[in-house]
Write a sequence for this structure.
């Protein structure tokens, strides 16, 4: 079997904490040939630490000179679309972090570009690749809780984390925020379990207009919040409704990420992580627990998306974390924010096909 050549664009925290340390798991299937970052110090450090053959600070030169077949796009949110489209037009397969783009039209352009250049485009998150989500899908297909009546999801977190770096304030700039950054996980899980939604309505607002970094090198620095930090949305799946709450104004919560309520029981747990149990309620037997059986090294195994795309390239198969699914989730998020502004339910523009099988 031949070896696939991979290049990484964006050498920030996510690249150096989550992705690059896991490249050893590819064994002989793929090799890291180049890294690229506009900050030379970061690019050089990543190249030296993780054994890439070379580094670049210019994307055009990276695409022109490196022989990477797959480009892993780990840039900030607003750079996802321009980096991905440049790589696709250069004939490279692309795995991009979420969100796929900043608009549905841009997401569609990426999908059409990948099709025109006969390359593959996959997008985080990797929910449908995780054993936990696969087990959720199996239980629902088997009718363990009967017909679905309602679903409720939430992702709640503190406003800033420990040692929050000053160069991460873009998380609170236009085009980011909790819905685009972490809401994508729960919405990918909901649509991954039940298929495309039809309509969305939402309320959204900025609860905390300013933040102060409490510790770390930037302690005491203040910055403005430019995004809705709390969003409550409703989804219409045609045969049932779901709600989703996402906020960066919550210190802690004891609620599960997702609960699905059926005619004959309830599923409760977190399908967005690999090694989490599923709590199952059925009348007469009460609550039982379906223990995880996966042996993944990390519960947040984001690198699995890169591994999967390597296999898709080697075997010429379609990626399961598809760009059409990612575009639909982006459609939900952007339409939800517009619904909050207009004060009415809005139809979604996009749809997608769930994969018939999972790995």
């Amino acid at each position: 079997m031949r070896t696939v050549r991979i290049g990484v664009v964006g050498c920030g925290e996510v690249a150096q904490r989550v992705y690059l340390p896991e490249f050893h798991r590819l064994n002989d299937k793929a090799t890291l040939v180049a890294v690229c970052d506009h900050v030379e110090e970061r690019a050089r450090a990543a190249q030296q630490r993780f054994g890439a053959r070379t580094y670049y600070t210019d994307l055009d030169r990276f695409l022109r000179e490196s022989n990477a077949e797959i480009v892993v796009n780990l840039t900030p949110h607003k750079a996802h679309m321009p980096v991905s489209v440049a790589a696709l037009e250069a004939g490279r397969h692309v795995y991009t972090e979420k969100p796929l783009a900043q608009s549905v039209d841009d997401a569609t352009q990426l999908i059409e570009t990948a099709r025109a250049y006969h390359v593959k485009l996959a997008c985080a998150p990797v929910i449908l690749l995780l054993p936990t989500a696969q087990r959720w899908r199996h239980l629902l297909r088997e009718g363990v809780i009967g017909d679905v009546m309602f679903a409720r999801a939430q992702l709640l977190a503190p406003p800033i984390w420990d040692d929050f770096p000053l160069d991460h304030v873009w998380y609170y700039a236009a085009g980011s925020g909790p819905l685009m950054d972490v809401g994508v996980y729960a919405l990918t899980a909901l649509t991954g379990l039940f298929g495309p939604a039809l309509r969305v309505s939402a309320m959204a607002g900025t609860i905390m207009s300013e933040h102060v970094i409490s510790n770390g090198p930037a302690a005491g620095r203040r910055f403005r919040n430019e995004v809705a930090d709390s969003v409550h949305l409703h989804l219409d799946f045609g045969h049932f409704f779901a709600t989703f709450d996402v906020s960066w104004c919550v210190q802690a919560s004891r609620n599960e990420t997702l609960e699905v309520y059926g005619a004959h029981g309830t599923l409760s747990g977190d399908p967005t992580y690999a090694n989490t149990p599923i709590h199952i309620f059925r009348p007469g037997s009460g609550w039982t627990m379906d223990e995880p059986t996966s042996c993944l090294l990390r519960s947040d195994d984001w690198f699995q998306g890169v591994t999967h795309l390597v296999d898709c390239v080697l075997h010429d198969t379609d990626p399961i974390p598809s760009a059409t699914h990612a575009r639909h989730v982006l459609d939900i998020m952007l339409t939800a924010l517009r619904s909050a502004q207009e004060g009415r339910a809005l139809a979604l523009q996009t749809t997608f096909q769930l994969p018939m099988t999972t790995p």
The chain has two domains: 4-127+302-320, 128-297+329-347. The chain has nine helices and 17 strands. The two ends are 20 Å apart (CA to CA).
